[in-house]
Structure formats: C-alpha cells, structure tokens
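Obj: model holo form, ligand = iron/sulfur cluster.
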Amino acid sequence: MIGIGTKTGKKSTIARYPFLLEAFEMIKDESMEEILYSEAFRGSRALAVARVQSALKNDEKQIFIDERNCFEAVLSFYLAKAIVTHIKDNFLLKRHSIFEAKNAYYYLEKESEEVVDQVAKSLGIEREGDKIRFVTFLKYAPNSYGSWKLVNTRLSGGMVEIDRHIFLRIMQEAMRERIERIRFSVSDIDKAIDLSSIYAELSSRKIAQRKEYRIEFDSFPPCMKNIIAQIENNINVSHLGRFSLVAFLNGIGMKEEEIMKILMPTPDFDDRVARYQVEHITGKEYSAPSCDSMRTYSLCFEPDNLCAKIKHPMQYYEYKINHKDHGRVPSKEV
Ligand code: SF4
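Output (holo structure tokens):
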C-alpha cells in the first residue's frame, strides 16, 4: 500500500493517484453536506472545477497537487468525478479520464521503481523485472504501431520484455480505464458548485467541432440579440454587457475582426481600446456569464421557452444550431 496522508496534511504520494482504493478510503466517511457547503472544503470544490476545465481544454499542464493537503487533492478528484457523472456527456467523460491518467503518468515518471510497482499492483498489473504478461500488454497497448506492434516485441513464455517508458504507458491506459469506470454521484452538486463555466466550455467545443461551421445569428439567445440590437441602435452598452457579448462571440468561434465589426456602432467606440479589450477577453478565453449571473447584471432579456431549460447562453446556442430543423424545445434540462 502507498503511504497514506491525513487530513492534517502529512506529505504523501497518494494524492497523485486518487483513483486508487486507498485514496477513496480517505474521503468515504466524510459528510456530503459538509463537503458541498462548508467553508473548509471550498479549496476542494474549486480544484474539482479546475480539474474538469483542464480536461476540457486538453491542458497539458499538470494539476498542481499540494501534498501538504493530500485530503483536499483526493477529495477534489472525486468531486470532479461527481461533476462529470452529473453532466452525463460522453465526450467529457472520456476527456476527463484521459486527462487524469496523463496527469498521474507525469507523476509516475518521477517516482521510484518501488512506487511505480505499488501503483501498478493496485491496478492489477504485475511486473517481473523488465517483463509483463503478454495478455496485460495486449489489453493495455494504446495502439498497434511501432514499439506496440507484436512483431517488434520480445516474447517468451507468455511474458513480454518492456522498458520503463512502455510500462508507464501501459499503466496510463490502465489508469484511464480505471478512472473512466469510477462512478461517483452527488445529488444537488450543481446547486452547491457553479458548473456554468464547464457547460460553456463544453458547448464551445461542440460548436467548434461541427463539420459545417458558420455563425448563425438567428440562433443567438435573446440576451445576446438584445445587446447587439442596442449596439446597432447606437445605445451605450455597459462594460459587463460588452464583456458578456465578446466572451459569447469568442465562445462560439467568431474571429476577433468580426467581433470588432459588431462592436463598431457603439457610440464611444475607440478602435484601439476596443481591440485591446477584445484581445484581452479572447486571449484569456473568458467564458460568458451564466444565465444566473446575466440575471444578476440585468442582462437577461425576454427569456423564451428554451431559456427555462438551460443554464448558460452557450447552451442555448448549441441547442438551437443542433435542432435547427426541428425547432423543438427540450422537455427537460439540456
Ligand atoms: S435565460 Fe440565459 S440565455 Fe436566456 S436570455 Fe436569459 S441569460 Fe440569455
């Protein structure tokens, strides 16, 4: 068993591999009410959202694990899993497990052979010197090219010779599979944790992946149509209104030059200032505010039937362009 840390923050390696049973043991008896709402777990909740966002952004950077707070790190993994389970999106489920497995792989690369073998054993993989069982190799080989091609392997007595790199890649695949299989549900997680930035990012990705990509203005949500109408009518739009519009337009894949053209009729339009603001918002990839925030800023405008089923303007647009021919409003939340 890998050395387990404590809530008080003993340095430990378990935080790097939270999908192992030993890690789950640490959090399983904690009160869910406390986890979701208490100030003490705010860090875990924020880290959980960061984990899912990084997965969606295909972030190659490792998640920073503060080993002084092993409990927080492990809990954030399970909360992230609960978020992914709640959203029920296959693309997100796969992206998340790949991201977490890669993250663990980066840590494994720096571990001693003893720790590598301990993690492998917890995954059900045994290494004998520089060999593993042929069936294990076949099960977890990520592809069948190059070093993974059977003719390029040294096989004898049901065992395959492998180097450290190949072994770690096999472990990465086993970790991905383990992570994908974990189901961790937390009811009302969407009430306790603001998931709107994740919904926005997910919609943005799906919109960008459409084969015939084009901007469809008539599918914009009423709030964004209203901000554009105000700009076109030479009405001064608040800073928050402009921010929301630019972040939304960037989210659906509009180019900076096109965004600039939309902003141009603004009464106090200054090309240099506007360009700086647009570049800042698009460069940082800010998400447009959620519907809740838009309501708070008084930017939600004449919500329609579809608005009642979504939480973010990006979801509205994504739904509209995907169901354009049918004009249907979903019977439940999307
Ligand atoms: S409910 Fe959301 S999408 Fe609809 S108008 Fe309001 S802010 Fe926009």
